């Protein structure tokens, strides 16, 4: 499993065609930062935030979407408010391209107190994040995982069982999010997970492995597991950034 080397983003961001940028941010931010992020949301995003029953969930939605806008705006050299999104039938946001907007594939995920984002300009990308929590792992694995995956998990104990379960879960969901599909198809994806390497391969059940996808499992913070799925003929480097609202890029290189 990858242990990322997180760093502050430079003043000049470069996103080559064979690279993925992964960002992370805490969701519980100071009130003044929350106010700045909320001011960048569109009316429909603000309405979605208000629909949450609990204040904590509203705040975390505002941070998650506001940070996304700020990250993308740094690559586009426009204000966060100028970005527009379309959505597929599963709710996956897609950047609306105009003459001033460069095509960037992106995906985001949040769990508990953390959010992660993945961006690339080559192919498509998906990312999933899960907080390690106690739940009925074997029952869920039996419902959503293949027979081989379920057997592997059932033979493990304690922390090893939990980590293996969430590695499988995040790898599967990262791929489904990349292709814009829903969690209802989770049981159709099987993971070939190498314990000796940092990558995983996937197959659709009863089919040969898909060689045009690379999946990486990583630890974004203590108590979390995440995965990123990249449509690439070969593996590609990943650059890891910590989000800082007050650090703005002066230029972007493609």
Overall shape: globular
Beta-strand residue fraction: 25-35%
Number of domains: 2
Tally of DSSP helical segments: 6
- Into which percent range does the helicity of residues fall? 25-40%
Describe the model:
This protein folds into 2 domains: 7-127 and 235-253, 4'-phosphopantetheinyl transferase domain (Ribosomal Protein L22, Chain A), CATH 3.90.470.20; 129-231, Alpha-Beta Complex (Ribosomal Protein L22, Chain A). Helix content is 30%, strand content 30%. It is built from 6 helices and 14 strands. The strands form 4 sheets. Strands 1-13-3-7-6 form a 5-stranded mixed β-sheet, covered by helices on one side. A 5-stranded antiparallel β-sheet has the order 8-12-11-10-9, covered by helices on one side. Strands 2-14 form a two-stranded parallel sheet. The model is unreliable at 249-254 (pLDDT under 50).
């Amino acid at each position: 499993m990858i242990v990322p080397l997180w760093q502050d983003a430079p003043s000049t961001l470069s996103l080559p065609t064979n690279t993925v940028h992964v960002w992370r941010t805490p969701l519980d931010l100071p009130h003044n930062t929350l106010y700045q992020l909320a001011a960048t949301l569109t009316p429909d995003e603000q309405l979605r935030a208000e629909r949450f029953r609990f204040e904590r969930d509203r705040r975390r939605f505002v941070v998650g979407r506001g940070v996304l806008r700020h990250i993308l705006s740094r690559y586009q050299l426009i204000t966060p408010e100028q970005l527009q999104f379309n959505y597929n039938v599963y709710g996956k946001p897609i950047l609306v391209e105009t003459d001033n907007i460069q095509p960037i594939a992106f995906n985001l995920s949040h769990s508990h107190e953390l959010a992660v984002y993945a961006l690339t300009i080559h192919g498509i990308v998906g990312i999933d994040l899960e907080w390690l929590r106690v739940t009925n792992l074997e029952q869920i694995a039996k419902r959503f995982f293949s027979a081989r995956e379920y057997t592997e998990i059932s033979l493990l104990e304690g922390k090893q069982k939990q980590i293996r379960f969430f590695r499988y879960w995040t790898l599967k969901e990262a791929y489904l999010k990349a292709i814009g599909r829903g969690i209802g198809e989770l049981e159709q994806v099987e993971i070939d997970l190498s314990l000796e390497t940092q990558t995983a391969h996937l197959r659709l059940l009863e089919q040969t492995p898909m060689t045009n996808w690379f999946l990486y499992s990583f630890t974004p913070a203590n108590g979390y597991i995440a995965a990123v799925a990249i449509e690439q003929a070969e593996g590609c480097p990943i650059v890891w950034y910590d989000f800082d609202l007050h650090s703005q890029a002066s230029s972007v290189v493609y």
